[in-house]
Amino acid sequence: MSFYNLLNINDWRYEKKFAISSSTKHEVETVVKLHPAIFRKIFYERQVNNLYFDTLAMNNYNDNVIGTGERLKVRIRWYGDTFGRIENPVLEIKCKNGHLGGKKRIPLQPFELDENTGKNDFYSLFSSSLDESSAIKQCILSLKCSLLNNYTRSYFLSADRKFRTTIDSNLSYYRFFYNSNKFLYGYNDRFNIVLELKYDGEDDRFADQVTSIFPYLITKSSKYIKGIDCLYA
């Protein structure tokens, strides 16, 4: 049984990305703030951390590369410091179909992320955090940790509250090994910015009026794919 059949996601939304390499973070923020939709910052800037999981055959990565209709990303997400004791991690199973995306979020037990962290730690984490009878648990336990990344995120909301944008900068990627990790095999991307526009399906008829103002092209941009390509190619 696939994750799509297990998740029963109802809150699908559109997610459109702009990968930007020709502007600084300050310049991108200025473009967002001067947009006629009147975007205003709604949250404090913070660091986002993700541990991605994939099948042994890297099916999630390959499906994203070839553009399969139904695509998955499985990750643990938390905010703040990347390493040390992670107090409020959340398992996110994200489904995408074209520009439409939805996800299921499941709180996890705290865990330690340091040079001693390995695959057995995540097996124990999922075993203790997920419902014993859950079919999702069985699917998750079959996956391997494939990538760690982090970045700085800023949040903006339009005046009509229909469109949200995020700006991601200072992107870093690290390989993950089965038994121990000093996180020395990394790639720091200080030049590229990812601008993302998110909105509900009912507002898609207005989206072109918003996206056409941005001086950037909508692109297929996945941090997971970028990290795997940089570290494993």
Protein topology:
Blueprint: H1 3-7, E1 13-20, H2 25-33, E2 40-54, H3 59-66, E3 71-79, E4 84-86, E5 90-97, E6 100-107, E7 111-113, H4 119-129, H5 135-141, E8 144-157, E9 164-174, E10 186-189, E11 193-200, H6 207-211, H7 223-232
Antiparallel strand pairs: 1-6, 1-11, 2-3, 2-8, 3-5, 4-7, 5-6, 8-9, 9-10, 9-11
Can you tell me the residue ranges where pLDDT is under 50 for at least 5 consecutive residues? none
Number of helices: 7
Multimeric organization: single chain
The number of strands is: 11
The helix/strand class is alpha+beta
Rg, please? 18 Å
Helix amount: 10-25%
Instruction: Record the strand order, biggest sheet.
Output: 1-6-5-3-2-8-9-11
Give the terminus-to-terminus CA distance: 31 Å
Just give the CATH class: Alpha Beta
| Beta strand % | 35-45%
Mean pLDDT, to the nearest integer, reads 90
By CATH, the architecture is named Alpha-Beta Barrel
General shape = globular
What's the CATH topology label? Answer: mRNA Triphosphatase Cet1, Chain A
Major sheet: 8 strands, antiparallel, barrel
